[in-house]
Structure formats: structure tokens, C-alpha cells
Amino acid sequence: MGQTDAVDQISVLHLRYFLAVVEEGSVRAAADRLRIAQPSLSQQIGRLERRLGMRLFHRHPAGMTPTHDGEQIAAVARTFMAGLCSDKAGQRPVSRVSVPRGTEGRVLGLLLDRFGDGVQFVRIDSARAARALARGDVEAALVRHPLPRLAADCEVLEVYDAPLGVVASAEHPLATRQELDWVHLRDQRLLWFDEQRAPEFAQWLLGVCRERGWDPLLYVMDPAGSGLVDDALARSSDLVALRPRPDSTGPAITWIPLTEPPIERYLLIGRKPVARR
């Protein structure tokens, strides 16, 4: 991946997390403020540094301070983030935003930061989001990458990305490993969903699995609440799911990082100029 491509993949989430660490002076304090897991925040900061090709922080036993490059990036990030919250004159107000089922709380928090507490979330799967937007049912739509077919007058903004890891029973034979290679998954079934909800995402994710040498037997369980899904995982020794690292898991479930993980991306689409601030 070229440097320009890497920079293009920097999201609003990266900047929000980066500024939180700058302002709090440590990953632990920033994670508490953001209400996310400390390892997840550390991964996001490391990903931002790799994509920018520069070191953003001096690491000390007492915390973290920005480097010279980090201070410059922080100044730019503050200006950009302030623009997101600035006067919305000349732009259509956003009161209804569609979100796919299973959208994490941290992603909804980013949308609240963007549109304000008065925004209403409407559950619409990625496959139907573009049509809902075209009909005027919503003013903006959150969808999983890859994008469905869009109208020419739509704008797109990446708002969140995270590496997918393996979710399994805490008693699963793989649960004691600190990290999993794809070869470890070859005898595992994959907990799956109704592909009609997000066909582009389903095709992409299965393609990544097969590229990594895993062509899983799919165990479709949809629709289902998260409690039922976790229960199915907890009861099985050969069933796993692929998800971003959760803020917390129940005692019966564990999350294990993957080498060369797929990166799940959420994109915000809207009629010009809704998606841009």
C-alpha cells in the first residue's frame, strides 16, 4: 500500500482517539474517557502511526507526550474536528440516520458526536440503505464496506475501522492462545448471518477468509440477539465468529486477535453535502 493510500484510510475515529491520548497523557486515561478497552486504543494509535509513517508519541513510564510531529498532527486534527462540530449553515439538517443491526455503541457514539443527541437511529441493513436514502426515509446511512451501488450525488466518509478477531467459547480449545493464525481455524465452523443483509460485505469477508486458507462451513444464525449468538458460541468447541474487539465480554466468551486480520470499515453515506463537514 502506498503512503497516499494509507493516509486515505485514516478515519475520524483515529483522530478522535489520537486527540484523547494527547489530552489525557496516557492510553489508560484516554481509554477510560472514551469507554473502550485499553488494548483496542493502543492498536488504533499504532495503526495511525503506521499509516502516517511517523512516531506521534514519546512513551514514558508515567505516560505519553506528543512528539514534534505529533504536536503538528494534533493541531491539524483539532482544527478538523472543530469543523465537524461547527455551524451547519447551508447544510441540510440530519435527524434520521440508518444503521445496520449489530452496530457497536462506540460507532453510534461517533454519529452522536457528528449529528448531535437529537439524531434518531433507524435500523436498516446495508443492502437497503441506499434505497432508503434515495426515498428520503433517512438523511444519512451507515453501511459496512464494501459499498452498495450508490447514486451519483452521494458522498462517502469513513467513520470507523477495526481489525476483526475470533470470538469463541472461553472453554474453546483455541481460547488459551494469545494470537491465532489462520491455519488454526481450518477445522472451525463460522457463525454467519443472512447474507441478504449485506451481500457485498459477506462476499468480501468470505473472500478474505479463503485467501488466508480458510474456507469455513457456515453456521447461519440470523436473526438473533447477541445473547443467543453468545450462547451458541459458548456451547460449541468448533464454532467461532469474526468480530471487532468488544469493550467487554461475558465470562463464557473470549476474543482472540488474528494475524493479518480483516479490517471492518463503516462508511457514512449521504446526499451532498450531508456527508461532509
List keywords for this structure.
single chain; 277 residues; alpha/beta; Arc Repressor Mutant, subunit A; D-Maltodextrin-Binding Protein, domain 2; 11 strands; 23% strand; disordered N terminus; transcription regulation; DNA-binding transcriptional LysR family regulator; WH_DNA-bd_sf; DNA-binding; WH-like_DNA-bd_sf
Round the Cα radius of gyration to an integer and report it: 19 Å
Per the principal axes of the C-alpha atoms, what is the gross shape? globular
* Strands, total number: 11
Count of discrete domains: 3
- Largest sheet entry: 9 strands, mixed
Please bin the fraction of helical residues: 25-40%
What is the CATH level 1 assignment of the largest domain?
Alpha Beta
Instruction: Give the terminus-to-terminus CA distance.
Output: 27 Å
* Architecture (CATH level 2) name of the largest domain: 3-Layer(aba) Sandwich
The DSSP helix count reads: 9
- Helix and strand succession? HHHHEEHEHEHEEEHEHEEE
Characterize this entry briefly:
With 277 residues, the protein is of the alpha/beta class.
Question: Can you give a write-up of this model?
Answer:
With 277 residues, the protein is of the alpha/beta class. The protein folds into three domains: 82 residues, Arc Repressor Mutant, subunit A; 72 residues, 3-Layer(aba) Sandwich (D-Maltodextrin-Binding Protein, domain 2), CATH 3.40.190.10; 101 residues, 3-Layer(aba) Sandwich (D-Maltodextrin-Binding Protein, domain 2). It contains nine helices and eleven strands. The strands form two sheets. Strands 3, 4, 5, 6, 7, 8, 9, 10 and 11 form a nine-stranded mixed sheet that branches. Strand 1 and strand 2 form a beta hairpin. Helix 2 crosses helix 3. The chain starts with a helix and ends in a 6-residue tail after the last strand. The N terminus is likely disordered.
